[in-house]
Specification:
4-stranded antiparallel β-sheet, elongated, 15 strands, alpha+beta, Elongation Factor Tu (Ef-tu), domain 3, single chain, about 300 residues, 3 helices, OB fold (Dihydrolipoamide Acetyltransferase, E2P), 3 domains, 6-stranded antiparallel barrel
């Protein structure tokens, strides 16, 4: 009798033990919520692309949800005025070059004339020193030579004026070309178009937002930890990130802590955990690679430190 009771108790104990192990295994596989140290949502570094020129949007070929590479041309602001100004400045530059050429020819002529007068001046100077020529003749030749010398200096001084004018014109041409470049709208980063604020045909001004996009190759999981957890968090630390795969399983990825808040804040309402909330928490950013695009902005995530 006692043996039967003992065997019955032993069977019940084994059943209880196996049930406990199975329950523990199922809880561990069902997301492992009790293992997570912090909870939050994924976000991305968003970039708002604004117009760098004023005019009509003659082209804006993007839609929300488009995935684009960096540097892709997606829009254009009307360039008529900028092109007309560039044509005008180019014509002015050609005019300056023509005047420089004409000036150089005048300098060459004056130089030849001065060379002839220099020979005559040297000849009459020798004769004047030997008293073989009248002083009046010497003064006449010397006067012509000095006048020609000053005329050459005056002509050469005009070159500096033209050089300065050409430099100003080239600078204005560079500014006009830069304005043309700013009329083109290119994607500043590789990523997804999140919002579109303008449409083709609208008039835009400098600084007006056109669209917003965010890079999706790497997302940021912003989580919140309590003060007692701060000792377990350091910048540069590798952590395990989990996010939902389906109702019964999760994806896992490796992330790196990139930022820890220096001051506490009240627990945001978006944080939902199975633990009791604390009044004050510290925000932590974890950078998570997203090469396959599985993680989305706003998706909840968990971190294991």
């Amino acid at each position: 009798m006692n043996s039967e009771i003992f065997q019955s108790l032993k069977r019940n104990y084994n059943i209880f033990l196996m049930t406990g192990l199975v329950t523990f295994f199922l809880l561990s596989c069902n997301g492992g919520d009790f293992l997570s140290d912090a909870y939050g949502n994924f976000e991305a570094e968003e970039v708002v692309v604004s117009s760098r020129a004023q005019g009509t949007l003659v082209q804006l070929d993007i839609n929300e949800g488009d995935v684009l590479e960096k540097g892709v041309p997606v829009g254009l602001v009307d360039t008529v005025l900028q092109r007309l100004e560039l044509v005008q400045l180019s014509a002015s530059a050609k005019g300056v070059d023509a005047r420089m050429t004409q000036l150089q020819r005048s300098i060459d002529v004056q130089t030849e004339r001065l060379a002839v007068l220099k020979k005559e001046y040297d000849r009459v100077t020798n004769l004047h020193e030997q008293n073989a020529i009248a002083a009046q003749k010497y003064d006449e030749v010397a006067g012509q030579y000095n006048v020609a010398l000053r005329e050459l200096e005056q002509v050469k001084s005009q070159r500096l004026v033209l050089q300065a004018e050409r430099a100003v014109t080239q600078s204005r041409i560079g500014a006009a070309k830069e304005q043309l470049i700013r009329c083109r709208i290119n994607t500043p980063v590789s990523g997804t178009v999140l919002e579109k604020y303008a449409e083709q045909g609208e008039f835009t001004t400098v600084g007006k937002p056109l669209f917003k996009m965010a890079g999706m190759e790497e997302l940021i999981l912003r989580v919140y930890v309590s003060g007692t957890q701060l000792d377990d968090v350091t910048i540069g630390q590798e952590v395990t990130v989990k996010y939902d795969k389906d109702a019964d399983s999760e994806h896992q990825a490796r992330g790196v802590v990139s930022w820890v808040a220096s001051s506490a804040e009240f627990t945001p309402k978006i944080i939902q955990t199975k633990e009791e909330r604390v009044d004050l928490v510290y925000a932590v950013k974890v950078r998570v690679p997203n090469p396959d695009g599985r993680m989305k902005i706003g998706m909840p995530g968990e971190v294991m430190f």
